[in-house]
Amino acid sequence: MAWFLNSSKPDWLTPDWLSEILGSDLAARLSVRSHPRARRVSLRVDSQAGVIVLVRPRRASEKFIAAFVAEKKSWIAKHAAQLDALPGETSVADGMTISLFGEAVTVRHAGQSRAGVWREGDILYVSGRAEHLARRVRDWLKAEARRELTQIAREFAAVIERKVARVGVRDTRSRWGSCNAKGEISLSWRLILAPADVARYVVAHEVSHLKHLDHSPAFWRTVAELCPGRENARAWLKRNGAALHRVVV
Ligand SMILES: [Zn+2]
Predict the structure, then answer these.
(1) Cα of 215 to ligand 1 centre, how many Å?
(2) Cα(134) to centroid(ligand 1), Å
(3) Do 16 and 132 belong to one domain?
(4) Which of 27, 103, 150, 198 makes an SS bond possible with 194, Cβ 3.0 to 4.6 Å?
């Protein structure tokens, strides 16, 4: 079920010209997606992912989009500010919508009809007693994060001809990922709550350490080869990282 990998093309890359128009902070809030059937350039707010989505028809020129963005700058700034006004801690509960790799999914208590936790489209069904719902969602999220992040790590490692010994998930606050000399990668399971491209960047970073155990220019070249656009991912994590930790499950 590699549902989020479908959106793995680096459409969140904020081109330099966008930073020139909006400034890098605001440009980092914009997720540019090209759409084959889009007829015009449009903007919408994705409050789950915490980004403003700009949909561009595939054939629209950069010059045209640049003019559009320049015209909408104050709209973008206003909505980015609204996205920043995040609520305090939220517990996972029946009816709550959570963002999984950028896709909105609603938690639904399913009673005793079927055992376990399962996803059908944009619904995450959770069976069993209501008081166990949050724990069951957490266990599912962790397992799902580990499965998907492991898959990405293996893909990236194959590109640079290295082997990942193991991918583990933790709930670390100090960092999103780490990699040791034995080739063991540890990642925060909360990356599942970030957009797919941000999670991919963190994995690319740790996988690149399989080749370079430092942060040398050669290391950053490997990261860029696997997943370009690190500034945007870093900016996103800086801005929204705390919010991922505010989801209490
Ligand atoms: Zn590093």
Answers:
(1) 6
(2) 32
(3) no
(4) 198
- Tell me how far apart the 2 most distant CA atoms of the chain are, in Å: 56
Instruction: Please say which residue of 25, 52, 84 terminates a domain.
Output: 84
Query: How far apart are alpha carbons 235 and 198 in whole angstroms?
Result: 10
The CATH number that applies at residue 226 is 3.30.2010.10
Closest listed residue to residue 97, CA positions, set 198, 197, 193, 236 = 193
Q: Work out the average pLDDT over 12-25.
A: 75
Kindly give the pairing relationship between strand 247-248 and strand 123-127.
Answer: unpaired
If one compares 151 and 228, the residue with the highest pLDDT of the two is 151
The percentage of the chain sitting over the pLDDT mark of 90, rounded to a whole number, equals: 51
- Closest to 116 in 3D by CA, of 93, 100, 133: 133
168 shares a domain with 67: no
Predicted confidence at residue 32, as pLDDT, reads: 82
CA–centroid distance, 70 to ligand 1, in Å, is 35
Together in a domain, 130 and 240: yes
**Tens-place pLDDT, residues 195-249:** 999 999 999 999 999 999 899 999 999 999 999 878 899 999 988 888 888 887 7
Q: How many domains does the chain have?
A: 2
Q: Which residue has the higher pLDDT, 47 or 106?
A: 106
Query: Domain range for residue 22?
Result: 3-84
